[in-house]
Write a structure and sequence with these properties.
With about 200 residues, the chain is an alpha+beta fold. It has five helices and seven strands. Strands 3, 4, 5, 6 and 7 form a five-stranded mixed beta sheet that branches. Helix 3 links the parallel strand 3 and strand 4. Helix 3 crosses helix 4.
Length: about 200
């Protein structure tokens, strides 16, 4: 057996052993089946697909909302809405570098976001909310007298940071929903939720 094949075989066995060890200590994959308190099995993907992200007033919020909604609905497109996810998203910029003539050469943007997940029942019941704001930073260079290039760089940076914010919120919401399903509460929310368009 070649050295490369031996190394690959060893790494696969080590990975499998690591996964078995994690299972023994109570680790469960985020999207795996959930044992509810009453003994039934829940599906996190179906619950996440029932979440609708609330409307956002600005361009950056729309980017975050669109990417996050796609992630949430990936496990069951067309699932009837039972939950709403309210976001408070902000993006602020500051200059990091200047040229000798005083024009800006580099900009840094900071994204801050809080979220609140609740049922669509009347009255709504809060499931979870962010305890620490999601905060991410990205930057881009402003080329000298290249206005189109600067706009393209800014748009690419906004798309990157919106995707990162969406990923972070998705993971936090998925963990909160997993706990909610494990506690055996989604059935009541589904029965009490009125139909909602969009």
């Amino acid at each position: 057996m070649s050295r490369a094949a031996s190394s690959t075989s060893w790494s696969r066995r080590a990975s499998l052993g690591g996964l078995l060890a994690l299972g023994a200590c109570g680790f469960q994959p985020l999207h795996g089946p959930i044992e509810s308190a009453d003994g039934s099995t829940g599906d996190i993907a179906q619950e996440l697909a029932a979440v609708r992200v609330a409307w956002q007033p600005d361009r950056f919020g729309v980017l975050v909302r669109r990417g996050l909604q796609r992630k949430l609905e990936a496990g069951g497109p067309g699932t009837q809405a039972r939950y709403t996810l309210d976001l408070n998203v902000g993006l602020s910029g500051e200059a990091l570098g200047y040229r000798q003539d005083g024009t800006i050469s580099r900009l840094r943007y900071t994204a801050n976001s809080n979220w609140n997940l609740q049922t669509l029942s009347v009255p709504p019941r809060s499931i979870a909310r962010s305890t620490i704001p999601v905060r991410l930073i990205d930057a881009f260079n402003v080329p000298d007298l290249q206005f189109f290039s600067a706009d393209t760089s800014r748009e690419a940076m906004e798309a990157r940071i919106a995707d990162m914010v969406g990923d972070e919120i998705f993971q936090q919401v998925a963990m909160a929903m997993r706990k909610y399903v494990a506690d055996g509460r989604p059935g009541a929310a589904a029965a009490a939720a009125p139909p909602r368009a969009g």
